[in-house]
Structures are given as structure tokens and as C-alpha cells.
């Protein structure tokens, strides 16, 4: 299994699109340095101002929350570049994969997706923290602040549940469809399903549409928006109260994760059997 995971990570590193994505994310983390260099070149360093109570803790919390709200870049996009052709298109497998079933390859693929996503998050945080420290040191505003980083970490962990549901759906879509264009169209429908149902409900306003009301709030896209919308209300220096509704949304998304993953393994094992 370790060799399979290493093979999947090697594939990710070799794909040009993934390298471009990684570079863009790291450039985002370097934005404080770019702002500082621009102000130095124009002689306007004195114009850089930050709140008196903004310190390193606040900077880390801010970056964690930004990653939370941009989680698609850190978790969803890797699958778009790294899905195994051996699974989706039945291509000949390499030596390291020849003695393993497709379900084992799928397991290694899922693990490698999360490992690479974790790598992006950790490196982006490190680059962002270093660049922020340099900026705060130059303008003489370096302090540790008093924000609760744990709050932002909790928000980041919660955001992985809806994002993981989307990732598992993408895996399933690739297994079933096998075509990038079809997967993109299907994912757009998946991510907008509650809005599509609301549009249908608006068109059919003269007819009873109670069944649409019954299902639209429980679609993965509606649950995703509910959880991310809840996280957007997170404020610094305040505990993160999780309401019963959010717990329910997280539980339902977890069920979707289990269903999508279970179907993926069922289809893969069925293909192996054939």
C-alpha cells in the first residue's frame, strides 16, 4: 500500500497542471511580501497600517479561515489533476500496481489526495506565516496578539466534511463516466442541485411541489452551503458554538461520504470481478 501511495503522489507531482496550481497557491501565501516590496519600491512603507491588536495569532487565524473558505483549491482540485487512469479508463497498470486490485489503487488514491492536500495546507501556512512575520517586523507592528487559533483550526476541520463529500462524489463520477468533460458537467449539477430544484419549483409554481421542498434542503449542495455559511459567521475571540442544525448537516454529509465511497468500491470491485 505504501508503494501504491508513493506512486500516486509521484503522478501528482509530475502533472503540469498540479504544479501551476501549487505555484498559484504559494503566490497567494506570499502576498504580504509582494505588498511590502511594492511599498518599498514606491517609498510608501509608512502607509502600511494594521490594527493595534492585530498580531501573529490573528494572522495565523486569518489564514486558516481563508484556507477554510477556499478549501476547494486545497482538497477538491488535486483530484481533478491526479485521478488514476488505470481506474477510469482501464489502461495498463504499471509494475507497482500490477499485483494490486483496483480497490487497493482507489484506497491509495484517496489517501494520496488527502496527503497532498495536507501538504498544500501546511506549506501555505508556513509561507504565509513567514511572509507575515517579515511584514510585521518591517513596519514595527510585531506582536503575538490574543486571538484563539483553535477556533480557526476547528473551522478548518469542519470545512473538510463538506469538501470531502464533494471529493468522494468526484471519485465516483470519474469511475462511472471516465470523461473529464462529463465529470465537470456532472459536478456543476451536483454543486448547484438545490438551486436547480428551486428553479424547477419556480417554473412549476401552479403545481404541487411539496416533494421538491422535501428533498432540496437535503441535497449535498444545500448542506455544503449551510455549513460553509455557518463557518463564515465565525468571529475571532469567541467560542465556536455548533448548533444542532450544523451537527445534522455534518452528519448527513458524512452519510453522503459513506454512500459515494461505498458505491465507488462496489463498482471497482465489480469491474475487477469481470
From TrEMBL:
The chain crosses the membrane at residues 20-43, 63-84, 114-139, 151-174, 181-204, 250-268. Keywords: Membrane, Transmembrane, Transmembrane helix. It comes from the Bacteria. This is ABC-2 family transporter protein.
Amino acid at each position: 500500500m505504501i508503494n501504491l501511495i508513493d506512486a500516486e503522489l509521484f503522478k501528482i507531482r509530475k502533472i503540469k497542471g498540479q504544479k501551476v496550481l501549487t505555484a498559484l497557491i504559494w503566490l497567494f501565501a506570499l502576498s504580504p511580501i509582494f505588498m511590502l516590496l511594492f511599498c518599498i519600491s514606491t517609498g510608501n512603507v509608512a502607509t502600511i497600517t494594521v490594527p493595534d491588536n492585530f498580531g501573529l495569532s490573528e494572522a495565523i487565524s486569518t489564514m486558516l479561515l481563508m484556507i477554510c473558505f477556499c478549501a476547494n483549491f486545497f482538497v477538491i482540485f488535486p483530484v481533478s489533476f491526479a485521478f488514476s487512469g488505470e481506474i477510469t479508463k482501464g489502461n495498463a497498470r504499471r509494475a507497482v500496481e500490477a499485483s494490486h486490485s483496483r480497490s487497493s489503487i482507489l484506497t491509495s488514491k484517496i489517501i494520496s489526495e488527502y496527503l497532498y492536500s495536507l501538504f498544500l495546507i501546511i506549506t501555505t501556512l508556513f509561507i504565509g506565516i513567514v511572509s507575515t512575520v517579515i511584514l510585521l517586523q518591517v513596519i514595527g507592528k510585531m506582536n503575538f496578539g490574543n486571538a484563539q487559533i483553535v477556533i480557526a483550526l476547528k473551522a478548518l476541520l469542519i470545512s473538510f466534511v463538506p469538501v470531502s463529500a464533494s471529493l468522494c462524489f468526484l471519485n465516483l463520477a470519474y469511475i462511472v463516466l471516465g470523461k473529464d468533460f462529463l465529470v465537470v458537467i456532472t459536478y456543476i449539477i451536483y454543486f448547484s442541485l438545490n438551486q436547480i430544484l428551486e428553479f424547477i419549483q419556480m417554473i412549476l409554481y401552479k403545481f404541487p411541489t411539496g416533494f421538491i421542498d422535501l428533498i432540496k434542503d437535503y441535497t449535498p449542495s444545500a448542506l455544503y452551503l449551510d455549513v460553509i455559511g455557518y463557518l463564515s459567521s465565525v468571529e475571532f475571540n469567541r467560542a465556536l458554538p455548533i448548533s444542532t442544525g450544523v451537527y445534522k448537516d455534518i452528519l448527513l454529509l458524512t452519510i453522503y461520504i459513506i454512500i459515494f465511497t461505498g458505491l465507488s468500491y462496489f463498482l471497482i470491485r465489480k469491474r475487477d470481478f469481470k
